[in-house]
Amino acid sequence: xxxxxxxxxxxxxxxxxxxxxxxxxxxxxxxxxxxxxxxxxxxxxxxxxxxxxxxxxxxxxxxxxxxxxxxxxxxxxxxxxxxxxxxxxxxxxxxxxxxxxxxxxxxxxxxxxxxxxxxxxxxxxxxxxxxxxxxxxxxxxxxxxxxxxxxxxxxxxxxxxxxxxxxxxxxxxxxxxxxxxxxxxxxxxxxxxxxxxxxxxxxxxxxxxxxxxxxxxxxxxxxxxxxxxxx
Length: 231
What we know:
The two termini are 61 Å apart. Helices cover 13% and strands 41% of the residues. The chain is built from three helices and 14 strands. By secondary structure, it is mainly beta. The strands form three sheets. Strands 3, 4, 6, 8, 9, 11, 13 and 14 form an eight-stranded antiparallel beta sheet that branches. Strands 5-12-7-10 form a four-stranded antiparallel beta sheet, with no helix packed on it. The chain has two domains: 3-87, no CATH class; 91-229, Jelly Rolls.
C-alpha cells in the first residue's frame, strides 16, 4: 500500500522499473493510482501560502520555529522578543565598578557611573543603594537630576551608619536635595521611590560634599541605581 507510512515517509504504490522487468504493460489504472497517491499526500501537507493547515497537534522534534513574527492576537504564538516585552520586567541599571572620591566642592554633579540615559516615558520604580563614606566631617549632599519632564515623583532616603545602626530618614520628590552632615566609612543610603516620566530624558545621581573639605567624600564601588517600569 502506498502513501505516507505513518512516520512521515511517502511510499510509492508502484515501481515502473520493476513493472518493466516483470513485463507489466503501462496501464491507465496503475498510473491513476500512483498519481492519486501523490495528490492525496500533497493534500495532507501544510502549504507555504496557508491554504493547508494542521488537523492535529504537531511535534517539532525538539527543533525551533525561527523568524516567528511578533504576536498580535490573543492566540498568536510568542517569539522571545514578544514574550520578553509582555512578561519580563523592563529594567534600566547603572552600576559603579570603581571608588569615586571628591573634595573641596559642595555643588552636586553627576556621578561618574550612576546615570541612565534616554529613559523613555512611563511610570518607574526607583531603587538605589549608595555605599559611601567621608572623613573630617565633610558629609554628603546628593540629589537626582532629570533632563526630560516628570509629572510626579516621590522618594524616600534611609541612611545606615557603619556597623549597621540606623542613621536617619527623609523624604521628598525626585529633585529634593538630601544632606548627611557626617558619614562613617561604612555608611550606605537606600533610596526608594517612583517617578512618572512624560518626556524622555537622562536620569543622573548627583552628589558633592556637604561641607567643603580637603578630606575626601567617596562613593564606593558596588553602588547601584535601578529602575523598573511599572506602566
